[in-house]
Amino acid sequence: MIRIPVHTPSRPYEVVLGSGLLARAGEHIGKLAGRGRVFVITVPPVRRRWGKVLMQSLAESGAQADILQMADGEPFKRLATLEKLAEGLVKLGADRGAILIALGGGVVYMRGLDVIQIPTTVLAQVDAAIGGKTGVNLQSGKNLLGTFHQPRAVLIDPNVLTTLPSREYRAGLYEALKCGIIGNVELFRLFEDHRREILDRDPVVIEKVIAESVRLKAEVVSADEREGGLRQVLNLGHTIGHALEAETRYTQLLHGEAVAWGMIAATQIALATGRLDPASAERITSATVSLGKLPRVKFQVASVLKRLQADKKTRQGVVHLVLPTQIGKVEIVNDVRTSVVRSAIEEIESLQ
Ligand SMILES: NC(=O)c1ccc[n+]([C@@H]2O[C@H](COP(=O)([O-])OP(=O)(O)OC[C@H]3O[C@@H](n4cnc5c(N)ncnc54)[C@H](O)[C@@H]3O)[C@@H](O)[C@H]2O)c1
Ligand SMILES: [Zn+2]
């Protein structure tokens, strides 16, 4: 069992990671919940595969637990869903002493009550479950409404990834690879040296990949809970990635896939502006593309550029970008000429 501390000012907590942990989740949760009631929030595909294991473990530990379901997928990450869940909780008699367990991917979350995260996708295990950022989508855009709410604990069982659809699995890996590029050379090398095992979901290797990614994210959010500065490094690949996701109306790319294209573009920009040497640029690009074929996307370069101008991180027309300067190191820059950004986006087109 691996324990990784997260030290945010609003609350310190632990990420506990181990194969088979879900079946022993009751022990861990019992210690945190005391005599409070437990409510598990999940989505049907996850409930079908893993609901029983968790509920049984909770029952064995003597917890009084109920399960609540929300509809699956990004379109349901809306206030209306939250309202329905809250009504459901009140009907079941949830009070301030209750504890919520969020069992699912990055879409499942809750605030206001104590929460234990049990993430079930790669993306949620290495990213969404750690750091306390919560949000819902509005018609006008993704994650526009939200708050920071740190969980009481995060329990990660890599074993649950065995049932994850392969595209979802790979999409999450790009976020893990991102952690390596940002600040962990050893993690990056795992991707270079053990690509096959990672793609085959080898339990030993995948546990390492997740643990190292979690460590990186835990360090970053411990130093900068509210995204004042340092936390921005986690946005490697995200500025251009978000523009591509939006440009393709969230229908062609999974989030991690968009981030992969964004990382490739950021690497090109770093190379073109003399911040990164050609050999490292080649290593980053090939580690990214070798995780599987990225879906082709159709877009207008000009309108992607326009979206970048409208990005919330853009100030006075200057796009803020996170660029790799070596493997394991990034820099936040705001002086990249539009022509350089344009060439990098065109490069995406040519790589498809
Ligand atoms: N809070 C943050 O800091 C943060 C960071 C990154 C992403 N996010 C959010 O995360 C969301 C994306 O998360 P996601 O990619 O996990 O999507 P998701 O939660 O929609 O899960 C993807 C799909 O996999 C299914 N699934 C989940 N676990 C499974 C399992 N073990 N076996 C079989 N099927 C399983 C789900 O039912 C769903 O259909 C986005 O809304 C994004 O905004 C948040
Ligand atoms: Zn992301």
Q: What is the domain total for the residues? A: 2
Q: Which strand order do you get reading across the main beta sheet?
A: 1-2-9-6-5-3-4
Q: Please, how many helices?
A: 13
Say which molecules are bound, naming each kind only once: nicotinamide-adenine-dinucleotide, zinc ion
- Uncertain segments: none
Shape: globular
Just give the CATH class of the largest domain: Mainly Alpha
Q: What is the CATH third-level topology name of the largest domain?
A: Dehydroquinate synthase-like, alpha domain
Order of SSEs: EEHEHEHEEHEEEHHHHHHHHEEH
Strand content: 15-25%
The structure class reads alpha/beta
Q: Helix fraction?
A: 40-55%
**Global Rg:** 20 Å
Mean pLDDT reading: 93
CATH fourth-tier homologous superfamily of the largest domain: Dehydroquinate synthase-like - alpha domain
Please provide the count of β strands: 11
How would you sum up this structure, described in words?
This protein has 352 residues and is of the alpha/beta class. It folds into two domains: 2-164, Rossmann fold, CATH 3.40.50.1970; 178-351, Dehydroquinate synthase-like - alpha domain (Dehydroquinate synthase-like, alpha domain), CATH 1.20.1090. The chain has 13 helices and eleven strands. It has helices at 25-33, 44-60, 79-91, 122-128, 166-183, 185-193, 195-199, 203-223, 238-247, 255-272, 278-289, 301-310, 338-351, and strands spanning 2-8, 11-17, 38-42, 65-69, 99-104, 114-119, 133-138, 141-148, 153-156, 321-326, 329-333. The strands form three sheets. It has a seven-stranded mixed β-sheet with strand order 1-2-9-6-5-3-4, sandwiched between helices. Helix 5 crosses helix 8 (203-223). The longest helix has 21 residues, at 203-223. It is globular, with a radius of gyration of 20 Å. The termini are far apart. The model has no long low-confidence stretch (mean pLDDT 93). Nicotinamide-adenine-dinucleotide (NAD) binds next to helix 2 and helix 4.
